[in-house]
Specification:
By secondary structure, the chain is mainly β. The protein has a single domain, classed as Rieske [2Fe-2S] iron-sulphur domain (Rieske Iron-sulfur Protein, 3-layer Sandwich), CATH 2.102.10. The protein contains no helices and 13 strands. The strands form four sheets. Strands 4-5-6-11 form a four-stranded antiparallel beta sheet, with no helix packed on it. β9 and β10 form a beta hairpin. The protein is globular and about 40 Å long. The chain starts with a strand and ends in a 13-residue tail after the last strand. 32% of the residues are buried. The structure holds FE2/S2 (inorganic) cluster. FE2/S2 (inorganic) cluster binds next to loops.
């Protein structure tokens, strides 16, 4: 994996680069220019983790590419713009469950479990994906 200087604001390609390298768990996933705006795409990380990547303009989000309802891929679904949601909402193509790309939270069933998410950094036009973050259980939200 290539380690490049990172931007202070992870999704802002115009931000000044920092001298700090990306944390080692970040893995290059491709070029921002190769991600079609608003079209979810599946990526497989070197550890076999399946990730669904969604681009909107100069921002990119990444969630687990396995729907918690029946374990089908979310990357064949749609990325929706929903009032009140600052990030895209991924809609499962199989039974219509919807999840926040920012938090992985379930916004519409039949799924009941949230999605793991992955931090994304964009450095010099390249997209890097970090380590999986498990969703916060509703009982842990304060
Ligand atoms: S597999 Fe995703 S909603 Fe059923």
């Amino acid at each position: 994996m290539t380690v490049l200087p990172s931007s202070e604001h992870s999704n802002d390609p115009s931000a000044e680069p920092l001298s700090e390298p990306l944390p080692s768990e970040f893995e290059r996933a491709g070029l921002l220019a190769d991600l079609e705006d608003g079209l979810p795409q599946g990526v497989v990380l070197s550890n076999g983790e399946r990730v669904c990547v969604v681009r909107r303009g100069h921002e990119v989000w990444a969630v687990h590419d396995v729907c918690p309802h029946r374990a089908f891929a979310l990357s064949g679904g749609d990325a929706l713009t929903v009032d009140g949601e600052s990030a895209p909402v991924i809609e499962c193509p199989w039974h219509g469950a919807q999840f926040s790309c920012a938090t992985g939270a379930v916004l519409q069933g039949p799924a009941t479990d949230a999605l793991p998410t992955f931090p994304v950094r964009i450095v010099e036009g390249e997209v890097f994906i970090g380590a999986r973050r498990e969703p916060i259980a509703p009982s842990e939200v304060v």
